[in-house]
Amino acid sequence: MANLVVVGTQWGDEGKGKFVDILSERADTIVRFQGGHNAGHTIKVGSTTYKLSLLPSGIIRENKTVVIGNGVVLDPWKLMEEIRLIESMGIKIKDRLMIADNIPLILQYHRELDLDREQEAGEDKIGTTGRGIGPAYEDKVGRRAIRSGDLLKDDEHIRARLQIALKHHNKLRNYPVNENWTFEQIKDIAKEIIPYIKPVWKHLHTLMEENKDMLFEGAQGSSLDVDWGTYPFVTSSNTIAGMASIGTGVPHNKITNVLGITKAYTTRVGEGPMKTELFDDIGKHLADMGKEKGTVTGRGRRCGWFDATQVRKTCMLNGVTGIALTKIDVLDELETIKIYNGEGYEEHKGWLSSTAGLTQHEDLPNEAKAYIKRIEELVGVEVVLISTGPDREDTITLKDPFN
Ligand code: IMP
Hints:
- The protein has eleven helices and 17 strands.
- The chain is α/β, with parallel strands linked by helices.
- The strands form four sheets. The chain has a ten-stranded mixed beta sheet, with helices on both faces.
- Helix 3 (108-121) packs across helix 4 and helix 5 crosses helix 6 (179-193).
- The N and C termini lie close together (10 Å).
- 47% of the residues are buried.
- The mean pLDDT is 96.
- The structure holds inosinic acid (IMP).
- Residues 11-13, 38-40, 126-129, 131, 133-134, 219-220, 224, 233, 235-236, 269-270 line the site of inosinic acid (IMP).
């Protein structure tokens, strides 16, 4: 049995979706354990591009089971919308998706609060995705969330849970939430998602007993972790690998490997510090070549050089056992490539030739090999996979990340 967690080692958008898709071929079940539909995972298979926010990326492989664990905050309307979209692309979801029965739900008043706060914050805004993620996690720790499992109970119970939540929320708003309308909305969507709600922790423990492999799909990146990231400019969940245990019910000592998805340069969406940000033509070049636009919000991503101190720290926090280095081909046209090493910038000679689509390490130009080697040295973890383009095939495999 090997259980692998895939996490981002920077600020998200490292290219996790592609690797979760590739590695899900090996796993029996693919599990999301934190975040919500603030995430955006793009997967390209042939001429089809799938954009997922909530469904685990394994969903596009028809024989796999996918699980949304309790560490996620779930917008049930968004989930149904995504299910319908993916089904319209010819993929069956029924009997393959399970939702934990202890997931906090994101309701309309969470989205409204998120957007209102961001607007009122002016210059102090976080730059959230506006999806209600933060307010929903607040309700979870505030013990007033309505959870997936509540939907399985009678109307009186749901009404009581809603009233507790609204007692809090109405104090934060200019006008009260319409309780009856919200109740009806919840009842309506409940019908659609109830078939998926299960005690998934039991299912995962059965898989472990059967020695099946599991893949845990992280969302966002480690520097957005609510404890370990660039607080307060972070998301509201723990994004590092330890959360895979808490967010699913799989004990931490059953999680054997951690793959750290790492972009060959740095990007960030939203506000907050970014040590190596470039405001010049090179920054623009990285954004253009890397198509650095958010999957969820369409916002442009800030771009900069590789920050080895950031990735070294996040690899330590996650216990990363191997790195998947992505988007190396975005650097193809640069004469000089810089890395921030903690003391200053070191300059590396660019390779000025195309690495796009390469599948063999020996075909990489020497300068690219040297750049990758230097990243390994500074970060202290081996690079086991290299991505040279968006397709599944555009991958150099050096080692099996499950072992
Ligand atoms: P929230 O998660 O919507 O509350 O946003 C908080 C911060 O996390 C903002 O800076 C967002 O841009 C960032 N963020 C949230 N999800 C993602 C993601 O999937 N990729 C990159 N940044 C994200």
